[in-house]
């Protein structure tokens, strides 16, 4: 046991009374090929479910992973009142399981809920339920490079009603998927948005609202048809400022400085984003959180000072971008991405319990 890096945090906060656990009869794990997992398409044996009705969250339950039965009028189908989170659990070489900054996901979950008029979820239910779920499905978390368990907490309006107002019934769930990498291809070429927008001032861009993602599917499918894996979103007013890259926050390395757009009501307060900022500063890399224009990016490319562009997110961790396109012109980026690689490796080493954790980000499952 690698005791050096072992900082165990016990999640057993005020206990959830009588949490019902129904275990599966027979695990399906032996039918899964863990070497060829497509992201988010294979799920573990169990799920957590908790219903909100009569003004309060009921006792959470762990049940075998299974389909739900919902009324066709359930509010979420009609008005999209739903938000989610994305977290990962990692297993180290000693078989211990770790979460990365889960408190940040929990806080963001409730910030997103609040904006969508969804009742906030109790912290003890969240962590105790998650802890128990990861305990039951622990063999689904594989150690070794590239392996992790993607954890998806989600909440949606389940009230049977097409009235266009906040629902009075909700379902919270946590489902888990063993994953490897998010993108299967080796090249990430992006196009900078000139027509469509992801978020507007005063809107829900900062929240992990389901609809934020749905609204990206049409423009992203168009982009894919044109050979781009993602879109770099720009501000809705002028399309002059760079904001996010698909499901990721985005960093530009110009003249040895990392630049990323500041968080706002349009930008997701990415946990990987803020970890990368802290890690970079810790390593003495200059970081600027400031608005950055498409014009500045193109000028830096022309001047030869644009060194790297990369996205960050829970699913991808750190993902170097190979080229960007704007105004019909394509700009290739340097093949070498030393800063993205260094930051990614340092972050993964913390996540897999292979290095010191100077920021106290890692949490062990009990
Ligand atoms: C994340 O990376 O945090 C995500 O939420 C990605 C997800 C939409 C697949």
| Rg on CA atoms, Å | 21 Å
Q: Give a quick account of the main beta sheet: strands, pairing sense, barrel closure.
A: 10 strands, mixed
CATH architecture of the largest domain: 2-Layer Sandwich
What's the overall average pLDDT, rounded?
A: 94
Bound molecules: 2-OXO-4-methylpentanoic acid
Task: Describe the protein in words.
With about 375 residues, this protein is α+β, with helices and mostly antiparallel strands. The chain has two domains: about 5-180 and about 360-365, Aminotransferase class 4, branched-chain amino acid transferase, N-terminal domain (D-amino Acid Aminotransferase, Chain A, domain 1), CATH 3.30.470; about 190-335, D-amino Acid Aminotransferase, Chain A, domain 2. Helices cover about 25% and strands about 25% of the residues. It has seven helices and 20 strands. The chain has helices at about 75-80, 100-115, 125-135, 210-225, 270-280, 295-305, 340-350; strands at about 20, 45-55, 55, 60-65, 80-85, 85-90, 95-100, 150-155, 170-180, 190, 230-235, 240-245, 250-255, 255-260, 285-290, 305-315, 315-320, 325, 330, 360-365. 2-OXO-4-methylpentanoic acid binds near residues 86, 213, 313, 314 and 315.
């Amino acid at each position: 046991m690698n005791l050096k890096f072992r900082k165990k945090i016990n999640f057993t906060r005020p206990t959830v009374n009588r949490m019902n656990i129904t275990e599966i009869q027979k695990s399906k794990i032996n039918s899964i090929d863990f070497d060829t997992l497509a992201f988010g398409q294979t799920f573990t044996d169990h799920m957590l479910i908790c219903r909100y009705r009569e003004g309060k969250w009921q006792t959470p339950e762990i049940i075998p992973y299974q389909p739900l039965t919902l009324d066709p009028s359930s509010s979420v189908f009609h008005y999209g009142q739903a938000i989610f989170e994305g977290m990962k659990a990692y297993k180290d070489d000693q078989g211990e399981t770790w979460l990365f900054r889960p408190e940040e996901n929990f806080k963001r979950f409730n910030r997103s809920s609040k904006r969508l008029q969804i009742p906030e979820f109790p912290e003890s239910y969240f962590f105790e339920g998650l802890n128990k779920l990861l305990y039951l499905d622990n063999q689904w978390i594989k150690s070794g490079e590239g392996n992790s368990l993607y954890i998806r907490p989600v909440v949606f309006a389940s009230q049977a009603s097409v009235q266009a107002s906040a629902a009075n019934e909700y379902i919270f769930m946590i489902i888990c998927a063993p994953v490897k990498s998010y993108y299967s291809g080796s090249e990430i070429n992006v196009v900078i948005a000139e027509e469509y927008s992801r978020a507007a001032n005063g809107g829900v861009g900062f929240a992990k609202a389901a609809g934020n993602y749905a609204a990206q599917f049409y423009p992203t499918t168009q982009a894919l048809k044109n050979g781009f894996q993602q879109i770099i979103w720009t501000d809705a007013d002028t399309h002059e400022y760079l904001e996010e890259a698909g499901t990721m926050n985005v960093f530009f390395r110009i003249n040895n400085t990392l630049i990323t757009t500041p968080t706002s009501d349009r930008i997701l307060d990415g946990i990987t984003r803020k970890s990368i900022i802290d890690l970079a500063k810790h390593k003495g890399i200059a970081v600027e959180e400031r608005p950055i224009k498409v014009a500045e990016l193109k000028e830096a490319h022309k001047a030869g000072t644009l060194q790297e562009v990369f996205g960050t997110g829970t699913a991808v961790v750190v993902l170097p971008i190979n080229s960007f396109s704007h105004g019909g012109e394509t700009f290739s980026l340097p093949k070498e991405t030393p800063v993205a690689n260094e930051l990614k490796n340092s972050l993964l080493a913390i996540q897999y319990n292979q290095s010191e954790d100077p920021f106290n980000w890692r949490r062990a499952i009990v």
